[in-house]
Amino acid sequence: MINRKKIIAGNWKMNKTQAEARVVVGDIIREIGRFDSAEIVVCPPFTALSAVSELLGSVTNIRLGAQNMHEAASGAYTGEISAAMLRELYVRYVILGHSERRQYFHEDNATVNRKTKAALAAELRPIVCVGETLPERESDQWKTVLETQLVESLAGFGDKELADIILAYEPVWAIGTGKTASPAQAEEAHQWIRKVLATKFSAAASERIRIQYGGSVKAENAKELLSKPDIDGALVGGASLDARGFAGIIKNACLE
Ligand code: PEP
Questions:
Q1: Please, what are the domains in the chain?
Q2: Residue from 42, 34, 36, 43 nearest 6 by CA
């Protein structure tokens, strides 16, 4: 069986000024800056990327991610940010297709696909989010929804591209609600995702890809979720805003 290194990413969303970001990243570095049994990523808002990048420098095991990007290289796209602009700040990861982007900014699978292509071309590692809504879960459509999101968001890619992508399964009903999918529900969804990928790509690629779970993960529930065989990490919103909370998730779930 492949040993997939756990990856924990903090999505700060539209929170923290530069000054606040410096404080929390300083605390995160003190708590887990030397921790290397998991890949750790922080995703501040665009305006704090530069400050956080400076603090992370090359001395820590904590990497920088962005929460979104535009698919074009440059041009008349007021308010948008390109992959090259992120690379210049030493950003290594980018969250794409987060349900809040899909819901409030009308991003669909085709948009996510174009952005993922552009991110890969710029050597950014995309964290591609998929997940069903509550009505889709309750009407037992979640498998079809996930399959469509995966097939369309990853259209045109092969095993080679998949190797550089991280997936995040984030049931929309569990994001920011305090309601977590049970470890069994999350594991079932992750297994389904691997099954879909094995059909569309190869069994080896499906085995290799890391799939994070996201949705109200906190220090108290992280260990149980991440001990499931197909859950390879967490995408954390609310609990990543506080250094001790974020470090607690990593310490509880990733220490051998
Ligand atoms: C997220 O923003 O991706 C997320 C999972 O948020 P929360 O942890 O707050 O549910």
A1: 7-253 (3.20.20.70)
A2: 36
